[in-house]
Amino acid sequence: NAGVTQTPKFQVLKTGQSMTLQCAQDMNHEYMSWYRQDPGMGLRLIHYSVGAGITDQGEVPNGYNVSRSTTEDFPLRLLSAAPSQTSVYFCASSSIRGSFSGANVLTFGAGSRLTVL
Amino acid sequence: AQTVTQSQPEMSVQEAETVTLSCTYDTSENNYYLFWYKQPPSRQMILVIRQEAYKQQNATENRFSVNFQKAAKSFSLKISDSQLGDTAMYFCAFSGRNLNTGTASKLTFGTGTRLQVTL
Hints:
The complex is a heterodimer of chains A (117) and B (119). Chain A is mostly beta strands and 117 residues long.
């Protein structure tokens, strides 16, 4: 199994450009999420989804859009990149079915480092 | 809203020694999960250990164990017989319990503790 696959691993953008970070998982997980990691701030939740067609905002959603048209894919879109969006982005997924003890364990992608100039 | 606090930005331990990383959290919920994740220089986030709040027994995974003090809202990680491969950033995280809405999987992370294992 590939787990959670993120692309690209590295990207440099100019202010105002748009781009999409791709995330795909092959574990049939209902829950998918995007986090950003900044020095001294840990990981902060941007957006999440509990199934196809359902998305919701996390702690820091401004400047980002998401959609969930399939169970497998959860792309993160930056419509007009800003230097404040320079960060490392992680996609993570988990199952929310089954016993409580089997849920909640997030599987993370390898991360995408984005630099906005 | 839940908060997670890791008050030790950096720690160092010698190989084969024991080190304890601190974590406190704030929540009004009674049932929840707590986690420790490890992030080595490869940047990959790896689950180290997890604790279910309704279980009084502290979780253990080989050389890793936790000291869960529910009343004090404390969740420290003890690493025994430290190895060079334990060098990493360690994040404490909290998740509430709500399987119906999926919010059980919304993790709130602390700011991390960078652990350096030395010879």
